[in-house]
């Protein structure tokens, strides 16, 4: 019960999008052999960009949280990435489902290779829900930075268009899944992937849009 009271309190504070004190976001650690630790510079860079350009007060100390840990309830925004296998145990499924239904948000970024593994896990997590592609009109494609064509393409890979899928619980977006995009690669230090500055800027702006949407729609 104390965990839920604390969690509700966090989201009450965040709902006004005012920064009286610093708060954290987290990287999700999962089992199955996939490299959950990929893109180590991405979240710190995104936090720095959002704090400078949106006036957020997110801690630069990005946490790492196990999918089955009660500590996940301390973080309003959790990011998941990787190239390979993903396995959620029954306990982990329940913990993550409770977190998301209770007000949490998960961004999953397929770092090229995760797709065939994460989709079955999401179906186990929410068997009653289906991933739907978000329309270009969805708010975080336009505020505060405008993406008139929707999710930007950061890395080519198969040459397919970038797609953003969502899971909605009672009308609220609880999971956003970016596919054929590699958004997190664009958040990394420039010398990691050698992306152009315009490409990195697009990725960071899209990430900042997502953070602002999450913190104003709890």
Overall form:
globular
Give me the side-by-side strand order of the main sheet.
Answer: 2-1-3-4-7-6-5
For the termini, the CA-CA separation is 20 Å
Multimeric organization: single chain
Overall pLDDT: 90
CATH topology, what is it called? Rossmann fold
Rg over C-alpha atoms, rounded to the nearest angstrom = 16 Å
Percentage of residues assigned to helices: 25-40%
Low-pLDDT parts are: 1-21
CATH architecture: 3-Layer(aba) Sandwich
Please indicate the count of domains.
1
Q: Strand share of the residues?
A: 15-25%
Name the features.
7-stranded mixed beta sheet; single chain; 7 strands; alpha/beta; Rossmann fold; 36% helix; 16% strand; 218 residues
Can you walk me through this structure?
The structure is a single chain. This protein is of the alpha/beta class and 218 residues long. It has one domain (2-216): 3-Layer(aba) Sandwich (Rossmann fold), CATH 3.40.50. Helix content is 36%, strand content 16%. The chain has seven helices and seven strands; from the N terminus they run H-E-H-E-E-H-E-H-E-E-E-H-H-H. It has a seven-stranded mixed sheet with strand order 2-1-3-4-7-6-5, with no helix packed on it. A hairpin with a 2-residue loop joins strand 6 (163-169) and strand 7 (172-179). Helix 2 packs across helix 7 (197-216). The radius of gyration is 16 Å and the shape is globular. The chain starts with a helix and ends with a helix.
């Amino acid at each position: 019960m104390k965990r839920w009271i604390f969690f509700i309190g966090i989201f009450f504070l965040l709902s006004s999008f005012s920064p009286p004190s610093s708060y954290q976001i987290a990287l999700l650690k999962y089992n199955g052999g996939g490299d959950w630790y990929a893109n180590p510079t991405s979240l710190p860079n995104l936090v720095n960009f959002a704090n400078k350009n949106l006036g957020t007060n997110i801690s630069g100390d990005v946490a790492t949280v196990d999918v089955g840990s009660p500590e996940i309830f301390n973080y309003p925004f959790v990011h998941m990435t990787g190239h390979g296998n993903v396995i959620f145990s029954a306990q982990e499924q329940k913990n993550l489902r409770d977190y998301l239904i209770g007000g949490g948000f998960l961004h999953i970024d397929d770092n090229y290779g995760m797709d065939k593994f994460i989709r079955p896990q999401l179906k186990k997590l929410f068997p009653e829900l289906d991933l739907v592609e978000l329309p270009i009109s969805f708010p975080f494609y336009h505020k505060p930075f405008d993406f008139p064509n929707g999710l930007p393409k950061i890395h080519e890979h198969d040459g397919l268009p970038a797609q953003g899928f969502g899971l909605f619980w009672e009308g609220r977006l609880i999971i956003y899944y970016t596919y054929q995009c590699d958004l997190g690669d664009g958040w990394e230090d420039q010398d990691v992937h050698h992306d152009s500055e315009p490409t990195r800027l697009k990725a960071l702006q899209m990430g900042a849009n997502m953070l602002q949407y999450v913190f104003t729609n709890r």
